[in-house]
Amino acid sequence: MWWISVSLAGPPMVSAGQSHSCELVDGVVACWGGATVDELRAGGSPRKVATVIEGLPAARQVAAGGQGRSCAVTVAGEVWCWGLGEKPTQRQGLTEASAVTVGGAHVCVLTSAGAVHCWGSDRKGQLGGGSPVLGVPALRAVSAGEQHTCGVAAAGTVWCWGDNAVGQLGLDRLGDPAPPAKVPFLQDAVSVDAGAFHTCALRQGGDVLCWGDNLNGQLGTGSRQRSSVVAAPVGLPSVTAVSAGFGHTCATVRGGGLYCWGASERGQTGSSDDEDLLRPTPVTGLDDVRQVSAGQQHTCMVRGVEVQCMGSNTTS
Q1: How far apart are CA 79 and CA 109, in angstroms?
Q2: What is the mean pLDDT of residues 264-276?
């Protein structure tokens, strides 16, 4: 397990992408990592230390995703995006954004009115068929996975669309990509987080439900059996936030503790053993975690005014 700490001046937020991470503090965004094999071939190079993104207006939210891409929502409600070695550019036509999320190769923005606008790859229908996405109620949160997208409506229902090969839409079936549809058996969601091929939602009261791929135990059910319906991780205390990564999942619990489960081959779950964790397991020595974000083979968290990351520290 590898730990990297970045000291900051105030309470930050952090977002772990596929091969890079970004943090936001006092309106300033800095990123590190990046440069997958393909990006290196294209002439990119990894940021070995947190590097401030120049030319970006003051931001209030940042999201890191796949292919070295990141986006931010500015204080003015604009959306700016950039890739490795690219300068930030504003997404025209979006001036009332409240949140942005970056998937494997697509981006979705939630407006203050609850509409969702997506762009990028649409190979599996992850853009939802339109901009704005039609067929969903006004949403209060949105999250992009590898090739699927999910959102939470004001009433607490969860809606998902896109790739459904391993049940990551939670529609009680596997197979072809699907247009926006409501996830059955879930009526009281507070938030949702789409991982690469699985999805988790936090319910009122602190319970977590997950669905989709489970090859590495990322559903936390004690087995490797995937599920196309919502399933509860076992032995998890009351949760305050959940983050789904590529093959692992982490959750903050009341009191500041952190639990992780799933793929552990690079230490992304905080385990000293590289065996998959099939059940939620507490990360020892942590009782002050304020936020967590699970990436592909790494996990980043906010502790006080410091960002710490664990897991893979390579660029491939």
Answers
A1: 8
A2: 94
Q: Inform me whether the pLDDT recorded for 93 exceeds 70.
A: yes
Q: What is the three-class DSSP state of 102?
A: strand
60: left (phi over 0), alpha (psi -120 to 50) or beta: alpha
Q: What is the pTM of this model?
A: 0.93
Tokens linked to 43:
């002439």
Secondary structure of residue 237 in the 3-state scheme: coil
Per-residue pLDDT of 37-52, as tens digits, reads 444 344 455 666 899 9
Residue type for position 80: W
Q: What strands lie across the sheet with 116-120, from one edge to the other?
A: 97-102, 106-111, 116-120
Cβ atoms within 10 A of the Cβ of 137, count?
14
Which phi and psi angles does 12 have, rounded to 5°?
-95, 175
Contact 156, 189 (CB under 8 A): yes
Owner of token pair 């931001």: 59
Res. 241: pLDDT tops 70: yes
Distance CA 257, CA 305 (A): 16
